[in-house]
Write a structure and sequence with these properties.
alpha/beta; Histone, subunit A; 309 residues; 6-stranded parallel sheet; 49% helix
C-alpha cells in the first residue's frame, strides 16, 4: 500500500461527499464525478452487498451507467469485510484511478469507512475464522451481558470507553484482544495518518425537519420498490452481521410476528432517523468537513474543490 502511494502527490484530490442518510449524497457525487470526469468510490458499508440494493439505497443501474463506481455490489452477504480492509483496498485503488485524472470522488455515510481513508485506522491483526467464531459464540451463549463481563476481564480500559449497548463493538474488541494477545485498547493510538494527496470533505446541510422528511419519503420509496420482498429473499441469512442493519431487522421482526407490518415500516423510519442523528453528531466533530447549502450545493462544492490547498 505504501509503495503504490509513493508516486501520488498533493495535486491529486480525493473529493469526499458524506453526511447523513437521505441527504442527497449520491446525486451530488455523480454531478461532481461527471464534472471532473472521474470515478466514484462508495463509502457505504452495506452497499457493498449485492443482494440488498433496495434497503441500502444503492445507486440505480442508470446511475451506475453514468459514472464508474467501485465498492457497490461487490460482495455476497456471507463475505466478511471491515473498515481496515476497506482502507487497504481504497489505498491500493486510488493510484491507479489517478493515473489519468487528478480527481476521485468518495461518497457515503459510513463514518468508520470515511475515517479509515481520510484519517487512517490503527494497524490491527487479521482475525482468523476460529477467533471470530469464538467471539461470536460468547454473544450467542450469553448475549450482551456476557460480552460485557468478558471485555471487563480482558480489557478494562476499553470497557470504560466503549458503548456497552453496542454488541458489535464489544465483539470486535474481544476478537482483536484474543487474536493479538494484548488488550485492544493498547493497539488504539488515535493518531491520524498523513495522506500524500489532497482531501476535500463536504456534506449537504439540511435543517433537521427537512432531513427527516426526506428520510421518511425515502423509506416510503423503498417499501414501494419491494423492500419486503428483498428482505424475505435474505431472511434465511438473518444471522449474518451484514443484515444486522436498519430495514432488515424490522422486517425480520415482522416476519417473526413480533410486530405488525405498519409498525415495522414506522420503526424503519424511526431507526433511520436515529442513525442520521448519530451521523450528524459524528460529523460535528470533524473540523475539516465543509457544509453545503442544498440549494447551491454543486456550485459551492466546485468552488471548494478549486480553492483547496
Amino acid at each position: 500500500m505504501r509503495n503504490l502511494l509513493q508516486n501520488v502527490n498533493k495535486n491529486k484530490t480525493l473529493i469526499v461527499v458524506t453526511g447523513p442518510t437521505g441527504s442527497g449524497k449520491t446525486d451530488l457525487a455523480i454531478k461532481l464525478a461527471l464534472h471532473y470526469g472521474c470515478h466514484i468510490l462508495s463509502a457505504d458499508s452495506r452497499q457493498l452487498y449485492r443482494e440488498i440494493p433496495i434497503g441500502t439505497a444503492a445507486p440505480t443501474a442508470g446511475q451506475l451507467a453514468l459514472v464508474p463506481h467501485h465498492f457497490v455490489g461487490t460482495l455476497s452477504l456471507e463475505d466478511y469485510y471491515s473498515a481496515a480492509q476497506y482502507e487497504e483496498d481504497v489505498m491500493n485503488l486510488l493510484p491507479r484511478l489517478w493515473q489519468d485524472n487528478d480527481y476521485v470522488v468518495m461518497c457515503g455515510g459510513s463514518m468508520m469507512y470515511v475515517d479509515a481513508v481520510t484519517k487512517g485506522i490503527d494497524e490491527l491483526p487479521t482475525i482468523t475464522p476460529e477467533i471470530r467464531e469464538k467471539a461470536m459464540s460468547i454473544y450467542r451463549e450469553g448475549g450482551v451481558e456476557l460480552l460485557r463481563s468478558t471485555l471487563l476481564e480482558i480489557d478494562p480500559v476499553y470497557y470504560n470507553q466503549v458503548d456497552l449497548n453496542n454488541h458489535k463493538r464489544l465483539v470486535h474488541a474481544i476478537e482483536i484482544t484474543m487474536q493479538a494477545g494484548v488488550p485492544y485498547s493498547s493497539l488504539c493510538t488515535g493518531r491520524a495518518k498523513e495522506r500524500p494527496f489532497r482531501i476535500v470533505k463536504m456534506a449537504l446541510d439540511y435543517e433537521r425537519e427537512e432531513l427527516f422528511d426526506r428520510i421518511n419519503r425515502r423509506v416510503d420509496a423503498m417499501v414501494e420498490a419491494g423492500l419486503e420482498q428483498e428482505a424475505r429473499s435474505v431472511f434465511h441469512l438473518r444471522h449474518l452481521n451484514s443484515l444486522n442493519t436498519v430495514g432488515y431487522k424490522e422486517m425480520f421482526a415482522y416476519f417473526d410476528g413480533v410486530m405488525d407490518y405498519d409498525t415495522a415500516v414506522a420503526r424503519i423510519g424511526k431507526n433511520t432517523r436515529v442513525y442520521a442523528k448519530k451521523q450528524l453528531t459524528w460529523n460535528k466533530r470533524d473540523e475539516s468537513l465543509k457544509l453545503l447549502s442544498p440549494q447551491s450545493a454543486f456550485e459551492q462544492a466546485v468552488a471548494l474543490i478549486e480553492n483547496a490547498q
